[in-house]
Design a protein that fits this description.
The chain is of the alpha+beta class and 422 residues long. The protein is built from 14 helices and 21 strands. It folds into 3 domains: 139 residues, 3-Layer(aba) Sandwich (Glutaredoxin), CATH 3.40.30; 134 residues, Beta-Lactamase (2-Layer Sandwich), CATH 3.30.450; 103 residues, no CATH class. It is elongated. Bound molecules: zinc ion (ZN) (2 copies).
Length: 422
């Protein structure tokens, strides 16, 4: 209350009346206790700012989930919003003074100290920002804050037959895989990219599809029919499977001595490759490449960071995601609650939404291979510097989740299927 008293002399005349009312309210609060305080926030800061008061306790679970959100709001909106936490178990009078019924409760006070809204239970950062906006306080970050790259810094000059049409990676001449389409040949970097492609086809007959695939013979570089080839299915030092194709089974067995692995048929290879799928878009993934996602006791993967967020939308459940920073691999943890981000570690993490301009000029997702999360904007910038052909924009992790949560079940069913991204 001292701060209020100190502030009074410097107040402009128009504000003086409000301050008087506030002082009276605080006086009443001191004398009587209860409801009066709930109507007026104790004023402590100069100048007057909108104020968010969270009443909770350090041991209640939803209260604990509020803690990082409050810390972020405090940091991100310093000078624009006061954020106050009151532990009502340690300070039991406070709960009574504010007239709360449950913890946590958040009370929104405008800059004049008037209570404008109160919310009971956990509330996400996104919903807090939204509520402030409704109350006329715009806390949304300025549009110019994020990185936007509308045009490639340098054109992609690689010959098209040396670029994987699925992952956009360079095609290794020894693992090149071709799919004969209706009108065009699709060049893929490896049999693995073929299985990703196949798992993202809509209503395609897998067997008929396989008949159109050619793989490269590891020994001589010739294209051979995928279904009749023999495969040496091994493992790289990082645990990622490796696939070599052979027209001659004897050659595969000879290579096995130097490069340990299993000598398998197409059908066995196919079954292995399609075992682990993205929990959002259902594409085949290697766990080594994917983001682990926990939904209660269920464990799945997101083939990319944005798909990992999409698991919350597809399952309509709270999830926990462990994403590797696209540049450094540093772990970024996201927890969701009721379709919003409830916890983010580190709080500075950002998302890159890889987008490309379609022939009609509109922006569309550039696909799962162009999406990533980063521990901070510096890492994103370094990653972009190394990818001059990349286009898209920086978005928040909240936005990456919100983009998925707004999808209808029909849209989710089509998610990431080839040609459906637009
Ligand atoms: Zn590829
Ligand atoms: Zn996916």
């Amino acid at each position: 209350m001292n701060a209020t008293a100190l502030k009074c002399p410097s107040m402009k005349p128009l504000r003086a009346l409000r301050t008087l009312a506030l002082s009276l309210a605080c006086g009443a609060f001191l004398a009587v206790g209860l409801r009066a305080a709930a109507l007026s926030a104790p004023a402590e800061s100069t100048p007057a700012l909108p104020r968010l008061v969270d009443l909770g306790a350090d041991k209640c679970i939803p209260c604990k989930m509020m803690a990082p959100i409050l810390a972020e709001l405090k940091k991100e909106h310093a000078g624009r919003l006061d954020v106050v936490f009151i532990d009502v178990w340690k300070n039991s009078d406070a709960g009574k003074q504010y007239g709360i019924r449950v913890i946590p409760t958040q009370i929104f006070y405008d800059a004049s100290g008037k209570e404008r809204f109160r919310h009971e239970g956990f509330i996400s950062k996104q919903d807090i920002v939204k509520k402030w906006k409704e109350l006329g306080v715009d806390l949304a970050p300025k549009k110019s804050a994020g990185i936007v790259r509308e045009k490639p810094v340098a054109p992609d000059t690689r010959p098209r037959d040396r670029v994987c049409s699925l992952c956009d990676g360079d095609v290794d001449a020894r693992t090149k895989t071709m799919v004969r389409g209706q009108s065009e040949q699709r060049t893929l970097c490896s049999p693995h990219c073929y299985f990703i492609y196949q798992s993202s086809l809509v209503g395609a007959d897998a067997q008929a599809e396989a008949g159109k695939v050619s793989v490269t013979d590891w020994t001589n570089g010739r294209l051979i029919a995928a279904t009749t080839a023999t495969y040496l299915y091994g493992m790289a030092a990082n645990g990622r499977p490796t696939i070599r194709a052979y027209a001659d089974k004897g050659a595969a067995i000879r290579d096995q001595a130097a490069s340990p692995g299993n000598v398998v048929t197409w059908d066995v290879l196919r079954a292995k490759e399609l075992t682990t799928r993205c929990g959002f878009c259902d594409r085949a993934v290697y766990p080594e490449d994917a983001c682990p996602v926990k939904a209660g006791s269920m464990h799945t993967y997101g083939c990319c960071t944005h798909c990992a967020m999409g698991v919350a939308a597809r399952l309509q459940k709270d999830i926990e995601v462990e994403a590797g920073d696209g540049l450094t691999g540093e772990v970024i943890r996201v927890k969701t609650l009721n379709g919003s981000v409830a916890a983010l570690e580190p709080a500075s993490a950002v998302a890159w939404f890889g987008q490309m301009r379609g022939p009609d000029g509109s922006w569309a997702s550039a696909g799962c291979f162009k999406q990533a999360f980063f521990a901070n904007v510096t890492n994103l910038q370094k990653w972009l510097d190394a990818r001059p052909t990349m286009t898209g924009r920086q978005i928040t992790i909240d936005q990456a989740l919100a983009d998925k949560m707004k999808l209808s079940p029909e849209q989710i069913a089509k998610a990431c299927k080839l040609g459906e991204c637009k």
